[in-house]
């Protein structure tokens, strides 16, 4: 890592400060520009004070004349949240309770329904249900819009207020009204809240020769769970592993440091990710340390439109270094970093402080990771409109790839004929996907076919050199 560290805070790739710098050179020649700069700064400061007076005037009008009495704290917190949410889709204010909940969640345990959400058009939009939670078991799907909670509209609520309403005591129930793309009538679901302890890494052997690991999020337990999974599968396979599938589909991201550590687990050297902030001095870069926990196994990374943030850092790092083949559909495209900055006694703010870049120097903000091998989950996906991604969110940050140079990706360089074993979409009449039956997961089965064909062809390619 190099470069000056940014303000302390938790870095998330799933809060108001200002800095002013001034410089002057002594001498009569530069006096007029310096005086002009001081005058401009004084004018800007005066305008800021006028705007703060405007805020105070509006606040007093609300306190004095709103139809019902209001609490000062609630009005101020709503104003702060509005200011932050007006910047981009990922900046927000967390009151003390919400901040505590976020800290618990990043440790790998939290209460609620088990849904990763954002806000769109005043509704709560599901990014991804977390595996084996009340939401996943009830059939909540990525892209669902939650319009009502217990019959009350979420319109007018902040995202944080909606999230708080969905949380509650274990065993209590809540009714969700969902509007699902492609479904004409609203869907009513009744869910029972539970303590959410997601198993962040699920793993198994596919046919005793291919390791499969699904990472559902990036919390403080992710990298250690990945290490245990790989070690266990090595023992189970008895030295017969031909490759590893890293499943990041519908993984909404999480902690930046965990994305770096997971990437480092597969890389021996080279850059993993870099971040660029408003000030050049705040740029940072993370590099891999020697040591590959798979000992050089062939890797396929599965991604889709629900793979976001930290998931895209891992997929981008392995893709740029050609350490793994990325298979599936284009990812979500969240290429920004949020820093959580505690405010003593008043919760915290989550502020977008940087963009991140893959080792080749490309930003995936509003673009996503394009797979090396496109494989659709269903035949219908080929004709359906793309699910919403980062670029579709209001006030999403622009992509700045045009402002800097990035290196082209190295060629995929797979043995001849390997990609011929991979089909782009399921055949007609293929069984519908059932999470309990891996054989119905078309993308997974194509990844298995690719790894086996790759393993079979690799010795031939070596012999031909």
TrEMBL record:
According to its UniProt entry, this protein's organism is Teichococcus aestuarii
- The protein, known as: Peptidase S41
What are the record's GO terms for cellular component? outer membrane-bounded periplasmic space
Query: Can you cite a GO biological process for this protein?
Result: signal transduction
Family recorded in the similarity comment? Belongs to the peptidase S41A family.
The record's listing under InterPro entries reads: ClpP/crotonase-like_dom_sf (IPR029045), CtpA/B_N (IPR055210), PDZ (IPR001478), PDZ_6 (IPR041489), PDZ_sf (IPR036034), Peptidase_S41A (IPR004447), Tail-specific_protease (IPR005151)
List keywords of the entry alphabetically: Hydrolase, Protease, Serine protease
Q: Name one GO molecular function term.
A: serine-type peptidase activity
Classification via Pfam families: CtpB_N-like, PDZ_6, Peptidase_S41
Q: Which CDD domains match?
A: cpPDZ_CPP-like (cd06782), Peptidase_S41_CPP (cd07560)
